[in-house]
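[Meeting: bench + compute handoff]

Bench side (C.D.) handed over the final construct sequence. Compute side (W.E.) agreed to return the predicted structure before the next meeting so the bench team could plan truncations. Sequence as handed over:
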Amino acid sequence: MRRRLLILMLVMLLMIIIYFVSECQDNHCLVNVFPQHIRGNIFPEHLDGYHTPFTTDTLSQSPDIICSGTSLRTFAPANDSLISKAEWESLVTDLQWPFPPVDLLSPQEATNPTKCSFSVVNSSSSHTVGEFVDVILTARDSKNRPKTYGGDFFQAKLYNTELKASTYGAVTDHFNGTYTVRLALLWPGPAKVSIRLVHSSEAVQVLCRHREQEPDKVYFLGHFEEGVKQETAICNAQRSSRLLGDGTQCCCEYNEPVTGEEWFCQQPSSLPCHALTYHSMGGYQAALSQLETTLLQSKDIVLQGDESVIYVKPGNKTRSQTKCRPGLHTSVPSGFYLQDHWTSLVCDSKTFPSAQLVSGCLKNKQILMMGDSTLRQWFEYLENTVPTLKRLNLYTSSQSGPFEAVDLQSNTRIIWRAHGIPIRTSKTPKADLHYIAREVEDLAGGPHSVVVFTLWAHFTTYPLASYAHRLAIIRRAVSSLLQRSPSTLVIIKSANTGYKDVYGSDWLSWQLDLTLRTMFRDLPVVLIDVWQMTSCHYSPDNIHPPPVVIQNEVDLFLSFVCPE
């Protein structure tokens, strides 16, 4: 009898184990990992109100499991004194995203923007500037069936075409196929709601998985030269199977002596590793299935929904009276357009409509800009706006610089340079591609020194840990700069919208942007939030915003340089 009972207990235990494994496979082992005191909103304070999928008391994925079973700890920097285990786990938790609970069998099961709908709550009621309106959004698949889970990446705005007015709206995911949007009423007159599906939850899952599992889907070329000999080899920021090949030609390893940042190239057949002279973009090699390709093709489509016009009466002033200074909280919304002019809700921003005003603000300033082509647009705008600001001919790459412009009348010097590898650019001397941290480490700083950087567009293809490690190196350099020279102004330009594929999607950019904001939130630096400025503007979505948006971005930048 006792033996039969033991056998029965073992059988029951085996059935429980089988059931649990099955559930883990279907649901990716969802467990509740959020402490009670942070349920309701786990995002850092200055990120409140963005597309926040963690705003209700629900179960979520463990920090160990993300992107359908990919462990982010696999890619976490080993023995990294710059990122503690607690910080890394907190960061991964903050960036969790709800993925489909089951494997997709057909594109018909994915969220279809043409089937989704939204309605404005109390659109006909009387509204006043300074109030909010709420929108309810329902996601459906291609068969018009309501979705039962969340994870879709929507972007929302309130706008008025005639007034050239718009503002960004926060989207909240309720994990059951419904979403709500809260929109601030910031100008008097009529306004309408616009919502677009950037990526379905199924497409986001594809993006996340390939980000973590395929870091070399973009590859680069190293050009080796010694005397008359020349060779080209594949290079990248991480060792990978594609880079290693059969192992017979791997690898040349390059370590930046100050920052410790790494770069790898295949070993040339006849030249030494130190012969690496030039860097260039190689190509794209993402390995997408037909289903994944189809999912990523349906993107950035405006939803058909409530066409109600919201009439807003004049009311409270919406302009901030706070002086523009480092360390300010970035609100949502952080501002709004009216007649194509951006008014900040973060601080008392100003406009600089003339060359004289811009030049006056830049007087006696030494400005170092480091980043990608979206920050290069700032340099070019200033160069084109101020006639006395003249670019020197340094005979450098037209894409990656470095560039330098000086204004002898105002004693102004502005440098823009690309942020170091990895960077997708034409063939350029590797010696011209300096890491941001190395440049910052070499700065004395001071009250006339302004440091501006951005880092995101060329990192969308790499695992999150690689990007976080690069940010940690820059954070250490910035922290040291501010300790030795507290009067130095450090400004960070956020990511902007405009990417739409597996190599650079708005969702991927968004994840990097949140990482950057989180990792620099405790330093006295300035964040210029151009994500909202580009997301809600009426211009066609483009990684390089049009001149009117760039002017507003630069005006906000100058408001921190010259707050008085």
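W.E. noted at the follow-up: The chain has twelve helices and 28 strands. C.D. will use this when planning the next construct.
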